[in-house]
C-alpha cells in the first residue's frame, strides 16, 4: 500500500443491526448532519487557525532543538526528562516506537533517555542508583511551570545535579513563554530555554519542542514526525466527505456513543505502541471528558478511552469485551509491515500443538491474531474499526499522532465542547497547592483542611493482620 495510514471503518457499519452498528442509510446522512461541523473544523485547519496547526510552524525551531540535543548527546551519558501528562507521554511514545523498549539497555545507546513522570520515591531512588548524576543532563518540561509533581522532581534533581558540580547552563527547560517562576529560573540559570506555543495545549504538544527534543536526543529526525502529520493534515483538507477517513470515523464514533458505545477501546497490535496508547488516553480523556458545552448547557459527551495491547491483552480483558455489556467500540491499530520478522523453525513435528507453526512468522501470527480478535468481536455485534500503519517509520508515528489529535477536535465540535481545556483537573491541583503550603493558595487552606478532616472521618477501615512467620 502507498498510504502512510489507512482506516477500515467497514465494521462499524451494518445492513440490519442498527442497535450496535451504524446502518448504511445512517451513514448516507452523515454529510447533511455533520458536514457543517466538519467544514468549520476543516477551514480552521486549512487557514492554520486551529491550535493543532501550530505544530507546523514549530518546524522552524528544529535546527536549534537539534543543536541542543547534539550538544547534550556529546557531553552526557544520560538525559533525565522530567514531565507529566502531555509533557511526558508523547516523548515516551516516540522513544518506544522508534527505538523500542530496551533502548537504554543497548550498549551503543547514547545518551540513554530516562523519562520520569511520577513522584514515587522508590522509582526516583532506583533511578539514582542506576545513573551517575555527573554524567546526566536535566530536561525539565512543564508547559504551565506550576505542575507540582514535575516541580518537585525538578527541585530534587536540580539539587543533586548542582551538588555534583553540573553545568547549570546545560539544563534544558521547556515551557510556555511568560513572566512566571519557570521562566525566571531558566533566565537566572542562563540555561537552554525552549518555548511551547501558548495556544498549543500540553496534550497536543508532542509535535513541538516537547516531543522534538527527546526525538532528536535519541537520533530521530523530528522533521519526519511533521512530515507524517502533514500528510494527514492534507488528506483531512483535500478528501471529499464520503472518502474522508477522519470525517467518517469521527461521525461514526459520535453516533455510536449515542447508541450506548461509551467506551472507546484502542487495541494496539505492537508492543512498541503501548506508550502511544497511554498518550491517546490522556488526549481523549482530557479533551472529551467535559461536563459543560461551549453554550453553557450540560454536555452530552459520554466517552471513556481505554488502551489495550494485542496480542497480550487477548489473554486478560478480551473475555469481558466479548461477553459483557455492549458498551464499547473497538479501534485496532495494526502495523502492515514490521521492519523485521522472525520465522519459526519446525520443532516438535509430532506434536499437533507445535507442528503447525512451521514456516510461519511472528509478524504473520500477530496479524492473524489481530484479525481473529477483531472478527470475533464484530461477528458478536461489537463495532470495530482498524487503522493500519504502513510501517514503523517516524512519519507513520507523526501521522498517527496528528490523526488522533484531529479526531478528538472534530468529535468535540460535534458535542460542542472545548477540547483544549481540562477544568476537572484543577480542584485536585488546588487542594494539593493549599495542603502543601503554596503561598498564593493559603487562603483556601483552612477550608481544604477541614474538608480533608471531614473526608477522613468518613473512612471505614477494615484491617487484615499479618504476623511474619517465626514471630509468634
Ligand atoms: O505541562 P504541564 O503544565 O506541567 O502540565 C502537565 C499536565 O497537567 C495537565 O494540565 C492536567 O493533567 C495536563 O493537561 C498536562 O498535560
Automatic annotation (TrEMBL):
InterPro entries reported in the protein's UniProt record: G6P_Isomerase, Phosphoglucose_isomerase_CS, SIS_dom_sf, SIS_PGI_1, SIS_PGI_2
CDD domains from the UniProt entry: SIS_PGI_1, SIS_PGI_2
Molecular function via GO: carbohydrate derivative binding; glucose-6-phosphate isomerase activity; monosaccharide binding
PROSITE patterns: P_GLUCOSE_ISOMERASE_2 (PS00174), P_GLUCOSE_ISOMERASE_3 (PS51463)
Reactions catalysed, as given in the entry: alpha-D-glucose 6-phosphate = beta-D-fructose 6-phosphate
Pathway named in the protein's UniProt entry: Carbohydrate degradation; glycolysis; D-glyceraldehyde 3-phosphate and glycerone phosphate from D-glucose: step 2/4
Keywords assigned by UniProt, alphabetized: Gluconeogenesis, Glycolysis, Isomerase
Domain of life, source organism: Bacteria
Pfam families from the UniProt entry: PGI
The EC number(s) this enzyme carries: 5.3.1.9
GO CC field: cytosol
GO biological processes: gluconeogenesis; glucose 6-phosphate metabolic process; glycolytic process
Family, as annotated: Belongs to the GPI family.
Identification of the protein by name: Glucose-6-phosphate isomerase
